[in-house]
Amino acid sequence: MTESSANTGASPISTEAMLQRFLLISRAVAGQLDFQSLIQKVSEEVGFFLPHDHIDVCILTGDQDMHVAYEARLHTGWGDAPDPVPVSVSPIRSILRGEEAFILTADAQCDERFHFVGAFSDPIFDARLRSRLHVPLQVEGKVIGALSYSCHARSVYEDSHVTIAQYVADLLSSYIHALHQGERARNAAIRQAEIHAHAEGLRAGALRLTEALEQERQRIGMDLHDQTLADLTRLNHSLRRLRNRPMIPGDALNQLTDDLEVSLQELRSIIEDARPSVLQLFGFDQGIEALLERAVASQPRAIDIHYSDTTGGAGNDLQETLQIALFRITQEAVNNAIKHADASRIDVSLSLKDDSLCLSVSDDGRGLPEEDADHLGGIENMRTRATLISAEFCIAPCSKMPGTCVRVILPETATRSGIAALDEQTEDQDARIDS
Ligand SMILES: Nc1ncnc2c1ncn2[C@@H]1O[C@H](COP(=O)(O)OP(=O)(O)OP(=O)(O)O)[C@@H](O)[C@H]1O
Ligand SMILES: [Mg+2]
């Protein structure tokens, strides 16, 4: 580098002074982590030998066919563009495409190179820019953008300014390139995180949906099992008993038809809204009583049934989901007592114990078999129903009678307002953890 007269027209600058200036630029931009602060610093430091009213750094993005601009001193439409702009409309597209080494103009407002059909050149007039000087930013021989200086006055720049401008551009190119790559990597990481979060959200949603569907499937399966299958089994037994008779009495046929009608109604009820119609019609207490009466009505030998509620009607106050679950468990326990226990008495009771609601179904039958049958029948259904409403379930020998006792204990949190209370409890726990 030799003596230069590239400053504002005053005395030539010594090579040493130039080097000092470049060092200052280099130090000023080092550590700037975004383009806006970087161009601000460049503007502050280069004014000494490159006078300007406006300065901008233009960066190629995408597949080099778009660009963004960051500017200092004056704000124009170039820097305000919210999205990348096509290179094809840039007034300095020849530089961005590597077709020209620089552009120097004494008056950009009348320079035809900046004004073509579709050119994004309004800012030249809006900001009253006349003298302009543009040089490319290059990394490994490839153009990555351009550095531009503009003044309101005409004919400010001359050839010696071009050389200095290119030195500054070369000094900054690698830094700008690294900043750009860092920004791209950061944006890619943010996009990746967003995609991941979206996929995770979908996955969680799908999981919840699958769980809900699975619960619904289980519930309908259990309703069909507890209600319809039990009714059909009873009808089948009655038909078997009648099969060997020479004459079928009209009463028996009427009973069968009635039972079949009831079974069909129940099936319709399960299909229509999956809610036991007796609960809808009579509420929990009377629903259980009706269930007991109906279950023993068609039995060949008398079975004593007792229902006691010492809770003052807590069953009727339960949320519908809980009522249905307890009703279905009672139904299966009663069916089992009739089917397997050869019981002469079945007691159902609803009581409160340590703030928990306790439902029990006891029989005085032969008791559970010694060996556990390994099958997914009604006992498993009862257990699942209890789990779904956060209740404890057990089936064991009865303490008061020789037979079997099925017990469901619903904790107070679940009885107060059902699932909503459980959700509340979870939120409380979350809040405690957060604080
Ligand atoms: N109250 C009871 N007294 C005596 N044995 C019982 C009683 N409840 C259940 N069992 C025994 O437990 C077994 C399993 O009952 P579970 O309800 O799971 O199936 P299941 O009644 O045989 O068939 P499903 O309920 O599918 O119609 C029964 O086969 C029976 O041997
Ligand atoms: Mg059963």
| CATH 4th-level superfamily of the largest domain | GAF domain
Mean pLDDT: 83
Stretches with pLDDT under 50, minimum 5 residues:
1-10, 417-435
- Which word captures the global form? rod-shaped
What radius of gyration results from the CA coordinates?
43 Å
Percentage of residues assigned to helices: 40-55%
Order of strands across the main sheet? 3-2-1-6-5-4
Your description of this structure?
This protein has two domains: 15-195, GAF domain (Beta-Lactamase); 295-435, Histidine kinase-like ATPase, C-terminal domain (Heat Shock Protein 90, 2-Layer Sandwich). Helix content is 53%, strand content 17%. The chain has helices spanning 15-29, 35-46, 77-80, 93-96, 122-126, 159-243, 250-273, 277-282, 284-297, 314-317, 320-341, 378-388, 412-434; strands spanning 54-61, 66-73, 85-86, 103-105, 131-139, 142-151, 304-309, 345-353, 356-363, 392-397, 404-410. The longest helix is centred in the middle third of the chain and has 85 residues, at 159-243. The protein starts with 14 loop residues before the first helix and ends with a helix. The relative contact order is 0.06. It binds adenosine-5'-triphosphate (ATP) and magnesium ion. Adenosine-5'-triphosphate binds next to helix 11 and helix 12.
